[in-house]
Amino acid sequence: MSITALIIDDERLARAELRKLLQEYTDIEILDEAANVDEGLEKIEQHNPDLIFLDIQMPGKTGFDLLSELDKAPKVIFTTAYDEYALKAFEVNAMDYLLKPIEPKRLHDAVAKMREEIVKEKLEPPVINRSLLSENDQVFVKDGERCWFVKLGEIRLFESMGNYARVFFGTQKPLILKSLNALEERLDERVFFRANRKHIINLRCVEKIEPYFNGGLLVYLQGGDKIEISRRQTVRFKEMMSL
User: Fold this and answer.
1) How confident is the model at residue 164 (pLDDT cuts 50, 70, 90)?
2) Which of 48, 93, 126, 132 is the most buried (most CB within 10 A)?
3) Strand residues in 26-179 grouped as ranges (E)
């Protein structure tokens, strides 16, 4: 099973060296290269790769900036010459990171770990509507200096904050520059439900439901969040939950 990949790095020699190291991996097909973030975004849009080898420090915008501009993130192996960035990358649950100059053994370990994940996902049934994000799609969330990779299925709640949305997963509540309406268009309505003007909830995270004012409902989510289902949305919510 072939794995498609892009190399995004501002140093031509670094791209050439990595391409050379990857020659022994016959199942990895390097589709293209990019030398900066804007070019990288264009190539990702064009090729939709399974994996990107991504430099973090690039002129203008960083690798983290690139990921924050994507709706969904491909699998990522960061490449960096700086330990501090490598550690930060590791904290966001990237598949792996490689310190430059790249050691063949570390590359082998990173590729092996990544290959297992990608092959497993490729064996899952295809998504019917490709414009929608699935529960297994990985999104990159950046809030200030902190950043995370998180699967959509792990997000229990989106809360509108004007042109921003607060994203609730685990104990984290970062802000992203996306409106609730824009998010709603990309989310699978069988999983993510517009509870009211300010909230979208993950139906799989509902733990308890109670009657509320004016014929609405109050739902309790995993993590302790309490969200009102507006009266207008209550009928549809009951249908979705087969109540």
Assistant:
1) very high
2) 132
3) 28-34, 51-55, 75-80, 96-99, 138-143, 146-151, 157-161, 164-168, 175-176
